[in-house]
Amino acid sequence: MKVLKFGGTSVGSAQRMKDVAKLITDGEQKIVVLSAMSGTTNTLVEISDYLYKKNPEGANEVINRLERKYRQHIDELYSSAEFKAKGRELIKSHFDYIRSFTKDLFTLFEEKVILSQGELISTGMMNYYLQEQGVKSVLLPALEFMRTDKNAEPDPVYIKEKLQSQLELHLGADLYITQGFICRNAYGEVDNLQRGGSDYTASLIGAAVGASEIQIWTDIDGMHNNDPREVDKTEAVRSLHFEEAAELAYFGAKILHPTCVQPAKYANIPVRLLNTMDPTAPGTLISNDTEKDKIKAVAAKDNITAIKIKSGRMLLAYGFLRKVFEIFESYQTSIDMICTSEVGVSVTVDNTKHLNEILDDLKKYGTVTVDKDMCIICIVGDLDWENIGFEQLALDALQGIPVRMISYGGSNYNISFLIKKEDKKRALQQLSNKLFNGK
């Protein structure tokens, strides 16, 4: 069985939903994970914001506007009077439920319930449309099987057991439609998966059922070998190792969240990134296979701050690094890159919320300097240290660009350079020319 996930733009209109229906009705039994229709979650956040501010009139105005939009989708999606009526009743029930929150105390719990309505509506609409087309489609309620534990991490044992029970209730179905993103927490409250959202849902479901493949359908033809917004002549990368995909996602490739494919990686289930706008394109296949002796792609991460701590006392001071890391840990600030010498350490962060407090604490251990408006350039591929010359290729490509830090050896799949933000576009283009375009 395959698991297919379609994002918000893929189901963003009645016509897009019809296009998705054609893609998934090929005679194979599968589980289909849907996001909310594009723009819906942002509007639900806006409604919640009005309710936090105790402005029910403002909330109701936005609710009414969103409901009118959905009624139009219903008229465009269904052709029969029976299913138009079912669709209208579906929309009415969800929006009446959302309106019920304008009358009472509003907290984070109620907000999460409201945010879940987008996925519940889109899956209900798709399920009715498939049934109208004569497909044996069944709605699997994610809130019945998708759960996180007390650490807000997915509970794989619970998910597998409850999902299997749901599937056994509907053994004769052709398609199983379920919601991405939403879940219940360890206390039974409506919650969400946050990181990776619907992609994470698809990966967890794929691992739970032992899927043959997980497909993530978006509006771009897989991961590209560079940022198409910054660089000319980029191409989709046809195959990536899970570690390569995670590095690219972490360092700027927005098509995928770095943690969302971990369940698939551990279960050894390949993940394919495909394009709903061009279904025949091969996309990108992510698996545990490494393509040897090849540099695959480049990504960039903006808004980086570099911090250098220089200390003459560091030499032979075995507790120095621990003290430095404990400062970042105490402010819940993660580090992207790190370089050390016998007299100092340089690190980079992308979260500057507690920067001033961190700097004050670091000054207890040495002289501190800061470089802001920096950018990390990440080069991904088979970068095992025995592949002689690969790091030299990257350095040659960055000729004429000042490099503040280099990180190499922490992974077999990544070499990273810290440069000024103003040099980013030139660096990405030069890397493309050297590594992929043969210039």
Provide a descriptive summary of the structure in words:
- This protein is of the alpha/beta class and 439 residues long.
- 38% of the residues lie in helices and 21% in strands.
- The chain has helices at residues 14-24, 40-52, 56-77, 81-99, 108-115, 117-132, 156-168, 197-209, 242-250, 262-266, 320-330, 355-362, 390-397, 424-435, and strands spanning 2-6, 30-34, 137-140, 175-179, 182-184, 190-192, 213-218, 239-241, 271-275, 284-287, 295-310, 338-340, 344-349, 367-381, 405-408, 414-420.
- The strands form three sheets. The protein has an eight-stranded mixed sheet with strand order 3-4-2-1-7-9-10-8, sandwiched between helices. The protein has a six-stranded antiparallel sheet with strand order 12-13-11-14-16-15. Strands 5-6 form a two-stranded antiparallel ribbon.
- The two termini are 44 Å apart.
- The model has no long low-confidence stretch (mean pLDDT 91).
Q: In brief, what are we looking at here?
A:
By secondary structure, the protein is α/β, with parallel strands linked by helices. Helix content is 38%, strand content 21%. The protein has helices at residues 14-24, 40-52, 56-77, 81-99, 108-115, 117-132, 156-168, 197-209, 242-250, 262-266, 320-330, 355-362, 390-397, 424-435; strands at 2-6, 30-34, 137-140, 175-179, 182-184, 190-192, 213-218, 239-241, 271-275, 284-287, 295-310, 338-340, 344-349, 367-381, 405-408, 414-420.
Overall pLDDT level:
91
Secondary structure class reads alpha/beta
Percentage of helical residues?
25-40%
Elements, N to C (H/E):
EHEHHHHHEHEEEHEEHHEEEHEEHEHEEH
Give the count of helical stretches. 14
Low-confidence stretches: none
Distance between the termini: 44 Å
Strand order, largest beta sheet: 3-4-2-1-7-9-10-8
**Rg, nearest Å:** 24 Å
How large is the share of residues in beta strands? 15-25%
Extended strand count: 16
Global morphology: globular
Question: Largest sheet, if any?
Answer: 8 strands, mixed
